[in-house]
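Notes from hallway chat w/ T.B., transcribed later so I don't forget. T.B. wanted the structure written out for a chain they're using in a teaching module, and asked if we could keep both sequence and structure tokens in one place. Agreed to drop them here.
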Amino acid sequence: MAVHHRNTASSRTQEPPLTIARVALYARVSTLNGQDPEMQLSELREYASRRGWTIASEYVDHGVSGSKESRPELNQLMADAHRRKFDAVLVWKIDRFGRSLKHLVNALADLCAYGVAFISFRDNLDLSTPSGRLMFQIIGAMAEFERSLIQERVRAGLRNARAKGKTFGRPRAQVDAARVAALRRDGFSWSQVCRTLNVSKGSAQRSVARFACELPEEWQALLTAGEDETFGSESRCRADVDGVGGHEVL
């Protein structure tokens, strides 16, 4: 009887095998330049079909880095996992879910608490098994190491480019200040000027602010007047001149 009692107690502590019927697919691409999540999703759909799983929902983050813990679709997936809308999360590769080991560990712990399994297709990883959890630790650490190497290579490339005199950032928009001044003199509003020259309001105003003081007074009033102000009002023009000196006129 004693032996039978020990066996019964041991069987009660064993977790029952997780039954997977509904899965959620998660895909992510870091950039929108030539990357398409459909490649990931197509393989995940085929795999789920072979396993006889029903796809409850698909979550896709476009142009979001894996280092970010907060992503729109990932946040929605975790919220739905908390509501047990599916039994498992299926990803194409573990680095699609996240590249930070800390984030992966925390997210996987949350899924485990919700009773939701995690499966990585390309890594052949199923965290519902002890061996899968061990491999997760190893693969997650390697993914974080790989990301650190990529960052270091990028920084080295930027330092080398700067040393050679390369400038970064978007080039400043070229605006014909004389053309802006002429349009304002003809009675165009700032919105009309921007549409005509295909430039932003800030760029148009900055282009004429550099030499506005060298123009005749009547031209200065036109250049510094607000969108809906009367150009002939001296007090308003003076207020607008002060505004152009500090902030853009709205």
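Follow-up for T.B.: DSSP finds eleven helices and five strands in the chain. Might be a good example for the class.
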